[in-house]
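Revision sheet: C-alpha cells.
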Amino acid sequence: MGTVLLVSALLPTLRADYAGFLELDADQTRSLLRRRLDVLTLPGMWAVAMYRVSSTLHRIGLTPLARLLMVANIVCFSCELSPRLSAGPGLVIPHPQGVAVGAGVTLGARVRLMRGVGIGTAGYRDKRRDGFPTIGDDCVLFDGVKVFGPVNIGERSTIGTNVVLFDSVPPDSVVVVHQDVEVRRAGAHKQTA
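Predicted:
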C-alpha cells in the first residue's frame, strides 16, 4: 500500500515541476500548446523527471535501480542528483550541466538551480561541524554557486553567480560576490605613478 501512495504522489510533483518550467517561458505571445511542447524538450525538465523517478525508486527499496537512473542522469545531462536528496515540488533546473546535489540536502518548494550549482557536505572530518544544507522555498541559486555544510538558506533568497557559502543566510536575502573589475581599451597600458 505504501508503494502505491509513493508512486501516486509522483504525478502531482512532476506536474508542479512542469509548471515551474512553464513559468520560465516569458513569451506569452506564443500559444500555450507551443510553450508546453517547448518545455518537454528542455534537458533540465528531463533531468528533474529522472531524479523524481530515481527518488521514488529509492524510497520503495529499489536502490540499485535508483542508482542506475542517477548514473543515466549524469551521462545524459551531466546532472548528479542523489536519489536520497529531498526536493519539494516545483524544482526547476533550466541548464542541468554540472549541477550536483548530495544525498542529505533538503530543497524547498519552487527552488531554481542554474548551471554548475554544487550543494553538499563540507567534508570536515569532525562530524559535529559537518552536515548537509537546507535551501528554503522559492530560492534561486545562479550559475556556479557552491553551498557546503550545515547551511540554511532562508526562503525567497537569491544567491548570485559564483558565490561559495559556508554560512547560513536569512530569508529574503540577496548574496553576491563583489569584485573589482577594470576595463581598459585594447592596447592601452596601465600607468603607474
